[in-house]
């Protein structure tokens, strides 16, 4: 199952995008609907709310009197904490039930207004943001929902800001224009990324990659993307292992192939083997491998590549303190601070990229850099050579 988080500020039109995704076959789990489900007449939570806040929170029809609950619960911090302590576990449990009921679905979208505010984005394979400027959302709230300006502004202000949402979401869906434009954008996203992603995930198959093409770092947000990916990996492995951004995309100002390289540091390779099925579930199938240090020296690792066709990621699972792990860290550090060495490496990359341009596979390009890396390994981890 491909798990997707969907969010957007109030008035952004998140329900429009949710409906389009549903039309394309995605299962939608709506957080607002679940919040209403768990307090419906007959639900145990409704009785607990009455016991905690008084019978006046039950309306004449047996349902929840939301204004009276709000008046009682938000009167002080203790009341708010009590409400959250009742609501949040019930919502989590019911949400998990919905995911379990749809475990055979290809794509499940969790529609959560406060996805960012509640720091939930690391729990999903991909996070989609329905993006509309705040001033346009304000106007929509006044026109479509009849809110007065002050109320609409207050509601917008209580949510995360646009920059905060964009920083933690993987895909930005512009919904500021005509609905036809949004439909076209979402349809393209589904066919080109979401469905192939789901299929690759099901088959535990890495996404197809392009050939050798160096990208201008000024046109990329590799550090931001790496941070989002690392957050997902750490969350998915219970925050037990350090994950580092390595390779060329980790070095500011360096031209690079559009591939995020990461290394996960584990106690030993037995732990790496045990971790492999979980990484596959997270979208990183892999196999045992080695890092060649040169002159016959090597260290064991696991190499995992991701299933998302929209973002190439290599994940090297290495033993903490190994020569290859230390070299990866030290190489990034050196080139980040040494402009001369960074420029020399950039020139080598350009020469080799031109030489191997047009090749579908990148092994020749990678192998041709090995003499340079051998020299750098001798300088940065000399103790690893006999």
Structure notes:
This protein is an alpha/beta fold. It folds into two domains: 2-203, P-loop containing nucleotide triphosphate hydrolases (Rossmann fold); 214-384, 2-Layer Sandwich (Beta Polymerase, domain 2). It is built from 15 helices and twelve strands. The chain has helices at residues 14-23, 31-37, 44-53, 66-73, 77-101, 134-144, 149-157, 162-168, 179-203, 222-236, 269-281, 323-337, 339-355, 363-368, 370-380; strands at residues 2-8, 27-30, 107-111, 126-131, 171-174, 214-215, 242-246, 256-257, 259-266, 286-294, 297-305, 312-319. It has a five-stranded parallel β-sheet, with helices on both faces. Helix 1 packs across helix 9 (179-203). The two termini are 47 Å apart. The mean pLDDT is 92.
């Amino acid at each position: 199952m491909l798990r997707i988080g969907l969010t957007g500020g109030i008035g952004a039109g998140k329900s429009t995008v949710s409906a389009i995704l549903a039309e394309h076959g995605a299962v939608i789990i709506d957080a607002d609907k679940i919040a209403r489900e768990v307090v419906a007449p007959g639900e145990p939570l409704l009785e607990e709310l009455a016991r905690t806040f008084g019978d006046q929170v039950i309306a004449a029809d047996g349902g929840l009197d939301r204004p009276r609950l709000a008046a009682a619960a938000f009167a002080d911090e203790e009341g708010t904490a009590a409400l959250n302590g009742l609501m949040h576990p019930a919502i989590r449990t019911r949400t998990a039930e919905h995911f379990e009921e749809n475990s055979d679905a290809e794509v499940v979208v969790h529609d959560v207004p406060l996805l960012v505010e509640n720091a939930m984005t690391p729990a999903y394979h991909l996070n989609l943001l329905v993006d509309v400027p705040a001033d346009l959302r304000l106007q929509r709230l006044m026109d479509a929902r009849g809110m007065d300006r002050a109320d609409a502004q207050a509601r917008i202000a209580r949510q995360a800001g646009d920059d905060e949402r964009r920083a933690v979401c993987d895909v930005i869906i512009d919904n500021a224009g005509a609905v036809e434009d949004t439909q076209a954008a979402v349809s393209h996203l589904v066919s080109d990324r979401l469905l192939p992603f789901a299929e690759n995930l099901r088959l535990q198959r890495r996404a197809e990659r392009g050939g050798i093409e160096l990208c201008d770092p000024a046109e990329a947000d590799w550090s931001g993307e790496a941070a989002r990916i690392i957050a997902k990996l750490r969350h998915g492995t219970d925050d037990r292992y350090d994950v580092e951004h390595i390779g060329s995309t980790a070095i500011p100002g360096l031209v690079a192939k559009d591939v995020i390289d990461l290394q996960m540091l584990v106690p030993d390779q037995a732990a790496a083997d045990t971790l492999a099925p979980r990484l596959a579930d997270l979208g990183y199938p892999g196999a045992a491998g080695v890092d060649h240090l040169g002159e016959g020296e090597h260290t064991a690792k696991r190499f995992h590549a991701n299933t998302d066709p929209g973002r190439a990621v290599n994940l090297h699972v290495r033993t903490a303190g190994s020569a290859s792990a230390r070299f990866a860290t030290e190489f990034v550090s050196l080139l980040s601070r040494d402009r001369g060495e960074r420029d020399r490496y950039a020139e080598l990359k350009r020469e080799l990229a031109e030489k191997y341009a047009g090749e579908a596979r990148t092994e020749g390009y990678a192998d041709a850099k090995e003499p340079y890396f051998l020299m750098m390994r001798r300088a940065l981890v000399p103790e690893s050579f006999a």
